Amino acid sequence: MPFFLKTKKNLIILSVLILFHLVLISIQIPLGEEGNYFEKVIFSILSPMQHGVVSFFRKIGELWNGYFDLRDVQSQNEKMRKEIFDLSQKNHLLMNYIRKLESENETQDALQDMYKSILPAHVISLDFSNYFKSIIINRGSLDGIRKDMVVLDRYGYLVGRIIGPISLKEAKVQLITDNDSGTSVFTQEKKIWGILTGDGKGQCLLKYILMSEEEVRKGERIFTSGYDGIYPKGIDVGKIVSIEETTDLFKKIIVKPYFEFRNLDQLAVIRINFKELF
Amino acid sequence: MKNFKEVAIGIILTFFLFTVLLKISFSLTQIFNVFSLLVIYFALSKGEVYGAFLGTICGLIYDSFSLGVFGVAGLSKTITGFIAGYVSRKINVTPFLRRFVFIFILISLELILWTFFYSYIFKEKLNTGKGALLFQPLVTAFIGSLVFSIIRRLRRKAFQD
Q1: Is A90 left (phi over 0), alpha (psi -120 to 50) or beta?
Q2: Distance from CA of B66 to the nearest CA of A (A)
Q3: Which residues lie closer than 8 Å to A166 by C-beta, 6 or more apart?
Q4: Number of H helices, E strands in chain B
Q5: Total H helices, total E strands in chain A
Q6: Which of residues 6-25 of A touch B (CB under 8 A)?
Q7: What is the C-alpha separation between B111 and B134, in angstroms, rounded?
């Protein structure tokens, strides 16, 4: 084939590929929550592979750590016994308190449901473009994972919620630090309500607090309000680290989330879809 | 069929390497663009059509593991792959230094395209990972030139044997 014809043919192929991408991008704008069909397929094929690689390295790490952990297992045991004792006491006190509020059967049922709904999970991947946006966990539809389920870190602080795509053993989690996330929250002291979004750099912004509002203070804790119908009321989110006066109608309030990216290996998925309860 | 196998193995190995790098540190994936290197490698060895197709595949893989609009990385990698294959037929990029500059320019171009599409669609600034992303062309070009030279030597040696 003459060179100019071959080049023309190649340019046509390039044009088709560019057009394909442009169509792909266009059909997703305005930005929707639903994942693209191609995206779901690629995710379902490749995420198990990633899962396997990460699990393999985790096993090696566990073997390695297991050897060294044997050395100070005695002191660790004592420390853990003390922790278990403290937690049992707290649990006992809470149970007693709850019993005062409801009948015993109702309390037991509610607690059983809650315990069963907690599913431990591990992070297998971060967002390729910006790690403050999303993560991928090693739980999927086979574990009962569904969209909008709440994800907490190992200490019970809010991390985010499940979004699509969800494959058989993997799922994507939108972090509260993502710019496109939105969480209804209130402040600890005066219960001032606002919307929390991510700033894309690891922190969050508490929005829609009027400039005239004087009762929001630096260092105050932020909790979920439950008004968004996704996150239940009362989950610890973070604390206010700065409040800036602006020329706009609203203050610029920066919230540092409690969850740490460094400790984001182990998570808990709450397998109750709070959206359906509302 | 042989080409298809090579491409499939290349993608799997790249994905494996990317996952390992991601597990070690996210910054490593920011300074070393392993997917683009694969695209450039096939564009150099098999031409611009392969480069463009592989750019599409690798870009879409990249997009499916990130939140947002699916196809942004695909578009920039497709264009880069095509240009890599097309230009490499016009100029000789075999010498180490020339190949280094060539990859450096291509990765920079891809980064510019990706940043442009990302900023245009999301209306937000890209997270550069405290500037780590800006070192991507330099680091990827250096590692790429080195790896390509090693592969070339190994192939030559295998051919001589």
Answers
A1: alpha
A2: 5
A3: A140, A141, A145, A146, A147, A172
A4: 7, 0
A5: 5, 12
A6: 10, 13-14, 17-18, 20-22, 24-25
A7: 9
- Supply φ then ψ for residue A121, to 5 degrees: -145, 160
Residues of B in contact with A44 (CB under 8 A): none
DSSP A245: -
Name the token pair of B9: 């193995």
Q: How many whole angstroms separate alpha carbon A77 and alpha carbon A120? A: 22
Does any CB of chain A come closer than 8 Å to the CB of residue B52?
yes
Q: Does A53 reach chain B within 8 Å, measured CB to CB?
A: yes
pLDDT tens figures, A140-191: 999 999 999 999 988 888 999 998 789 888 999 999 999 889 999 998 888 8
Tell me the pTM. Answer: 0.77
The interface predicted TM-score of the complex, written ipTM, equals: 0.87
User: In a mutagenesis test of the B interface, which of A5, A6, A17 is the best target, namely the one with the most B β-carbons within 10 Å?
Assistant: A17
**Cα–Cα distance for residue pair A21/A18, rounded to 1 Å:** 5
